[in-house]
Amino acid sequence: MAFEGLTERLQNAMKKLRGKGKISEADLRETMREIRLALLEADVNFTVVRNFVKTVQDRAKGSEVLEGLNPSQQIIKIVDEELTKMMGDEAVPLNKAPKIPTIIMMSGLQGAGKTTTAGKLALKLKDEENARPLLVADDVYRPAAIDQLETVGEQIGVPVFQLGTDVDPVEIAKRGVAKAIEDHNDYVIIDTAGRLQIDEALMGQLKNIKAEVQPNEILLVIDSMTGQNAVNTAEGFNDALDVTGVVLTKLDGDTRGGAALSIRAVTDKPIKFVGQGEKMSDLDVFYPDRMASRILG
Ligand code: GDP
Fold first, then answer.
1. How far is the C-alpha of 213 from the C-alpha of 105, rounded, in Å?
2. How far is the CA of 191 from the centre of ligand 1 (A)?
3. Best probe residue, ligand 1, of 124, 221, 249 (max atoms within 8 Å of C-beta)
4. 0.80 exceeded by the pTM?
5. Which of 47, 103, 143, 188 is most enclosed, with most CB atoms within 10 A?
């Protein structure tokens, strides 16, 4: 399971408090030191860890936890609540347009899982809302990307709009949206191009697409397995595009958890979905409280 190292270390840190009727400040300091190391080892952003530790420590001291009934339980509760807060507190739903179609623009680095996630999201909307989405193939730099999206569309029974690789992506996006309006689609999901790393040309083009179609939702697709690089990438995209939500992919293979725990705090943008596998059905709404409980084991 994902994050097993972190879970084990957090449990060990807190185990030492168990059964103690009273916790000394030194006990608390030692526990917090171990929690801090566990989070850093999980590749959580340094500043995020520092703030987290300080908040938990202040709350534990301030609320007379150290003297109260079952202090270790109370500290676990505080850690649980603060982890939840760190990841955004509440699940945040997709932004919807007042009038159909809702325009969703996917963005992210190549390989992060954009195309796959576009398909997964279309299937989710189709299954759960009975919606009729349209997928738009707007990655013209990787010819295989169009084929990939068409294959995905066929697999989930969702139409794909494409104009090949010779048309400007801004134009494709615009015509894709026009097609969705014409066909009364509820959603139009635009799969944009990625690069191996952030570059000016790519960001310029994404900004142009955004300005042209004015999406209701700009989802940034981030590979959680890349840890702090994922967080830096998220900051870069967010600075350029002012994204409205994050999708963390490949959580099924993420043994550390640093990206999941840092992205919200660093970018101040909500994680809306998580990808937990390669199948089209492997996309889930992100619930910070459930994730915190899962991390604490
Ligand atoms: P893109 O370049 O951003 O469009 O990335 P793709 O959608 O082509 O995905 C790259 C690879 O990551 C593919 O092999 C996907 O099957 C895989 N992938 C995407 N999301 C997930 C996920 O949540 N879990 C796992 N295990 N693999 C994923």
1. 9
2. 13
3. 249
4. yes
5. 188
